[in-house]
Write the structure tokens for this entry.
Amino acid sequence: MEKTSTGLNENVAGLLCYVLSWISGVVFILIEQENKFVRFHAIQSIVVFGALTVAGFMLGWIPVIGGFFTWVISVLCFILWIVLMVKAYQGTKYKLPWAGDFAEKRSG
């Protein structure tokens, strides 16, 4: 495993990009300027969890069924959170549809 500019192994830094959802992605995109693996996971975290946060907030306002949509998005977020952290720790550049392609193009 390569070390990053933060001194962490890239798989650990990749995992940490997902720990606090899109917030840790923002932190790592700001502090890691060189490692493409970490930057990929940081950008993917921002895109995926940022979009799901906004969707959950917007759909939550719908009367009657908003709570159901919020619950579905919360479950989806939890599953993605676990899968993406495990894949990053394993050193895998696991690409989700659309978000993974977007992240790969912008990670350098």
